[in-house]
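User: Please fill in residues for this 209-position structure.
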């Protein structure tokens, strides 16, 4: 090896090591939020498979339908984070992600919807009564209606269910002619007063190997 080859070999080696090391590092904070490994806001940190977005100081998750959901909290040791359910537009009973059919995760991504979410669906069509959801007059979704009075969801047909492992863990579906709005509560407890519900959709990730 001559000096020139030696030099380029060395430079290559250093570059490869640098990119290898930084790929294992946590990303800088987004606004006031820490971005723990493996979550990645850019190609130089975290693990690129675990892509999230730092949009103007707000850490966000991008669905398969290209809809952004704000990340509210992250629990890296449990491989989980909680996203904000979409807003229900004032005086209507439409979730802001209704146009894209609700929340859809890419099946090939490392993320899925955890089994700690109690999903509440609003303004459902009668056909949903055939499903195994809780659409009774004492369903928890009736409580939500009382506190969220400014939404147009009052007195619409609503149903709730625990998103358990028997269901797809990649979607919460809304559509015109089905149910047009939804919210979700993490670790719902029927004894809890509605004002202390923890609104959110908990997602989990497969740890990198
Ligand atoms: C970015 O965030 C700042 C502070 O929260 C806000 O004033 C500004 O309007 C935001 N800009 C955009 C493009 O959202
Ligand atoms: C519906 O939810 C209420 C309140 O949590 C519960 O008491 C009731 O048993 C549920 N009904 C069905 C059919 O699951
Ligand atoms: C409820 O859904 C139907 C379509 O399924 C829609 O026409 C109606 O406007 C919705 N109601 C509200 C209050 O948004
Ligand atoms: C979701 O991901 C977790 C691990 O990240 C896994 O244990 C679980 O089986 C997955 N659930 C489904 C229904 O794929």
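Assistant: Residues filled in for all 209 positions:
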């Amino acid at each position: 090896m001559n000096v020139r080859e030696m030099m380029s070999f060395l430079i290559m080696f250093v570059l490869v090591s640098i990119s290898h090391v930084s790929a294992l590092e946590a990303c800088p904070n987004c606004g006031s939020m820490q971005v723990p490994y493996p979550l990645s806001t850019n190609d130089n940190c975290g693990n690129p498979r675990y892509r999230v977005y730092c949009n103007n100081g707000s850490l966000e998750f991008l669905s398969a339908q290209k809809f952004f959901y704000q990340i509210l909290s992250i629990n890296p040791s449990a491989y989980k984070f909680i996203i904000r359910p979409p807003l229900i537009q004032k005086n209507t009973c439409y979730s802001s992600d209704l146009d894209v059919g609700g929340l859809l995760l890419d099946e090939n991504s490392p993320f899925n919807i955890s089994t700690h979410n109690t999903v509440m669906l609003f303004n459902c069509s009668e056909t949903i009564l055939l499903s195994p959801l809780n659409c009774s007059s004492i369903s928890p979704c009736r409580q939500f209606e009382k506190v969220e009075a400014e939404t147009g969801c009052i007195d619409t047909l609503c149903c709730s269910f625990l998103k358990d492992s028997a269901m797809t863990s990649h979607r919460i579906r809304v559509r015109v002619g089905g149910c047009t709005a939804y919210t979700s509560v993490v670790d719902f407890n029927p004894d809890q007063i509605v004002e202390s519900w923890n609104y959110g959709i908990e997602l989990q990730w497969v740890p990198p190997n």
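For context: The chain has two domains: 1-62, 85-209.
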